[in-house]
Amino acid sequence: MSLALAYTYLIVAIVAEVIGTTALKASAGFTRLWPSLLTAASYALAFYLLALTLRVLPTGIAYAIWSGVGIVLVSLASWFVYRQALDFAAMLGMGLIIAGVVVLNLFSKSVGH
């Protein structure tokens, strides 16, 4: 598998995880059927694609990207879908997370460019 395909799998895995986490709130503790099924299916897809990604990318690098981008996207999804406010500190922290992911990808020799 190419590095480009591994990153594609990782991006889709992150999007699936964000969908699953957003649906998790809507599942109301797994008491609502459709959001619960969406959560389970999204997480299953996310972890499958993450597993494929790990064939090429080092675990620590892939997980850093997964968690960093996931935190930002889940926070944004919660802001749009559930109207959960993000204050300055939250946005600053997410900016630092994004900066960390960028630094990791641009300058780390662990990624295997």
From TrEMBL:
GO terms for cellular component: plasma membrane. SUPFAM superfamilies: Multidrug resistance efflux transporter EmrE (SSF103481). It is found in: Cell membrane. It holds the Pfam family Multi_Drug_Res. GO terms for biological process: glycine betaine transport; xenobiotic detoxification by transmembrane export across the plasma membrane. The chain crosses the membrane at residues 7-27, 33-54, 61-82, 88-107. Keywords: Cell membrane, Membrane, Transmembrane, Transmembrane helix, Transport. Gene3D superfamilies: 1.10.3730.20. GO terms for molecular function: amino-acid betaine transmembrane transporter activity; antiporter activity; choline transmembrane transporter activity. Signal peptide: none annotated. Its main location: membrane. It is a multi-pass membrane protein. Belongs to the drug/metabolite transporter (DMT) superfamily. Small multidrug resistance (SMR) (TC 2.A.7.1) family. This is QacE family quaternary ammonium compound efflux SMR transporter.
